[in-house]
Design goal:
The complex is a heterodimer. Chain A is of the alpha/beta class. Helix content of chain A is 39%, strand content 23%. In chain A, a hairpin with a 5-residue loop joins strand 1 and strand 2. The chains are: A alpha/beta, B mainly alpha.
Amino acid sequence: MKGNGKPMVVRNLSYRYSDGTSALEDVSFEITDGDSVALVGPNGAGKSTLLLHLNGILSKQDGSIEILGMPLERKNVGSIRKRVGLVFQDPEDQLFMSTVFDDIAFGPINMGLPEEQVRERVRWALTEVGLNGYEDRCPHHLSLGEKKKVSVATVLSMGPEVILLDEPTSNLDPLARRRMIEMLKGLRATKLIASHDIEMLLGICDRAILLDNGRVVADGKTADVLTDPELLREHGLEVPMLVKLFGSDALDVIREDF
Amino acid sequence: MSHFDIDEYAYLESPFHSFDPRAKFVSILVLMFSVVLLNDIRILAVGLLLAVALVLVSRIPLLFVIGRLKWVALFVLAVVVVLPFSVSGTALFSVGVLTFTKEGLLQALVISLKAFSVVLLIFPMLATMKFVNFIKALEKLHMPNRLVQMITLTYRYIFVLLNEIQRTLRSIESRGYGRRTSILGLKNLGNAIGMLLVRSYERGGRIFDAMVSRGYNGTMETLREFEINSKDWAKAASIVAVAVLLHVAAFTSSIYVGGT
């Protein structure tokens, strides 16, 4: 791993939309190899905007981003995208091909891999998300939970070292959510997960970054940041009921539960 | 929500279902052109019978086929009603100032035979494979990749958009503005369509981002999955042979009869 074990280093990143609204202001953080990091914040805090930066879709206006030891610049963007996977919130956006197979194969084919390797990667990615046998299914006919898992598989097949996930559990029914969480926990890559699902984040992530109004408000252990009722309320969030009842003891319960 | 299932009859078993999609598409296309280019009404009748035979071989339920033919019939009916009166030639009878001519009637018949034959041939061609395989066949036949991408994305998102417009209309309705035919109703419909355009535009942007983030560079490729075997070649060759024979027959009959 390049980049001194720090696959992601963001310094003083700022971004304004074309209408002048500031979306990110002076955002700085680092992510260590193998970390699972939670990205939280109220609606409109800039979470999705930040994720789009880390994959090179939005280009930085100010500050610097270093991914896997490479500065995020035009000439690197291709190789960075191969190694940093972004899973969009709405699977209808993520899954644009007509079959599950073609969708998962899309990335590896674009990477120029030979046919046999592409097939192998599709097989592996489907096993990883627990959806073997779904190759010929049409994304339109899948349940939301399945769509979201296939979305993750489309990124896994590219073999990324870092996975960015935007709201992986939103809108899922409780059982589908649980399965998604179990699956995410099993993924070996470095993860950055943007979500409002604090309980899930407590279960999966070691570290949390709290974003509000485009600024990093807190950055620390999930056990500290995501169990602080005052802090969370101040920024439009809420600690889970279990934490309200049992304080930090709830953490063990949540971690064991998933 | 249930939609018309485009792949409804793609899972039956027939010589057409097992036919390689590329060979099937090309050979039947040749047959279609052959029929369209015929002008001999007797040979066209043979062509129509052939088309019916191919539909029967493909095992696609006739009721389904007839249901689709209704729409073609509507179009053809207009031709049949207008042509005999508008083409000049030997008068068969007159209605007021309008003259019903033999030549007009023949032309109308020729057009109807062609229309029905070609539409019938679409069934063994397209309804016997999954639409996805049809797109792949086009891709493997080297159709311009932009067009392949457009068809792929249209097929993927048409139902998503249908869902979206249905939701918008439902939400308008639930607030008491039904789809009534009034200025207000039309205004609401207009707004719904406008909203759909805006949403589609935004969705398009997000899809593009998703494609780019997975290495999209302008072309959309899938892996080869078809294998053409000797049976496919035989089927394709027979269909093309029939297409050629129709024209040979038309040519010889025109010599013997002295041209029609």
